Amino acid sequence: RSSASSVGTILTNLQHESATPLPVLRHVADAMTEDMRAGLAVEGGSDLKMILSYVDALPSGNEKGLFYALDLGGTNFRVLRVQLGGKEERVIATESEQVSIPKELMSGTSEQLFDFIANGLATFAEVEGGNFRLPHGRQREIGFTFSFPVMQTSIDSGILMKWTKGFSVSGTAGRDVVACLNEAMERQALDMRVSALVNDTVGALAGARYWDDDVMVAVILGTGTNACYVERTDAIPRLHGTMSASGMTIINTEWGAFSNGIPLTVFDKDMDAASINPGEQIFEKTISGMYLGEIARRVLLKMAEEGDLFGRRFPEKLTTPFSLRTPDLCAMQQDDSDDLQAVGSILYNATQKVESNLSSRKVALEVCDAIVKRGGRLAGAGIVGILQKMDQDSKGSIYGKRTVVAMDGGLYEHYPQYRGYMQRAVEELLGSEISRNIVIEHSKDGSGIGAALLAATNSKYE
Ligand code: ADP
Fold it and tell me: What's one Pfam family here (predicted)?
């Protein structure tokens, strides 16, 4: 083992290679805009799939009745019901439940996963309290949020292209996920119907728009990441002139697959090579919650292997992939004590009882900061890429008036430093005048109610 200087060198290199000065951000934002255009021009024309959502109408506030939502998108599976009362009464009641997905189901068979979901839904639907009323003779309708890349074929069907975010379930890719769910519901004798299949970003956009007409973009920053926005049908060459009645539609960008101009370190490249999808989801791997902790782990491990980050003791546990999690980085960065107590105890746990001194703790914080700063700033550049595309095509009607970007996801919600870096990057890119019109805010309802609202908008009874 060599000296403290190699720890310093590793840190300096990390900071240098992950730096995102304004010109880099500008390049990323411009490349995002260009990739969006290329994806809208031809199918497969870009890293960005620019998936048609078949959502051509957003909630107006007039929706009424009982609707269900079901959300599969990552570490958890959520079921929800909502009783909508129209413009005056709005959301009369909601109830929801969350079930964590057993790890083995994330790499099991399609039937096992969908049976588990249908079973959770059946259990939840069994107990419908007094505030919820389904008109006689109606089937319960579901908005199904499924946040993996799906090629939609209509509002209520879509083919799974590939699993992401650590899922590798066999037998679903290439199939209609609504059919998979319907078959599982039949096996449970559960009489419900999916009336809208929505990506979680699309659900978040719908949920936020229900309360605020200026919402034009939705971004999810959780385990994974994605963004969608309101597009004019006449700006989608791939549609060959097919217009929706409203003249608009929501485009699911699948921006996690973006890769153009992202500054990558050796740690990112190694993590990517070891991942289940090497070379894919590069933007996601630099900005989303699943990966930030893992990148930091790799840096700290190298500092322990090649330097003396933890003195003479080798932190064996740090060799385990994903043993340091993004919430750990977040907790470390909230520590404002003089001796960095909390940082010390998180490192102690992460290394299985290797003590750290104050200077190692400071280094660990610098590592977290470099990774989180890049993540937040790149996310901000991505948002500007979308806004810029919309503004160019609408002759200034995005930057020139109040425009809301609805944010959702655990990373955005819980990580103040990340949020701050993201917001400041947007301001740097747009300048102070335009940024005053751009409101980036946490979406109140999350994607859950949004999906139920889209089930209402697309109800077979309307
Ligand atoms: P999903 O798994 O569906 O994306 P969420 O939107 O709730 O669910 O996001 C969960 C992710 O958010 C976690 O995987 C983690 O990366 C991140 N996260 C959760 N809590 C925190 C936290 N306290 N600090 C930082 N990141 C967090």
Answer: Hexokinase_1
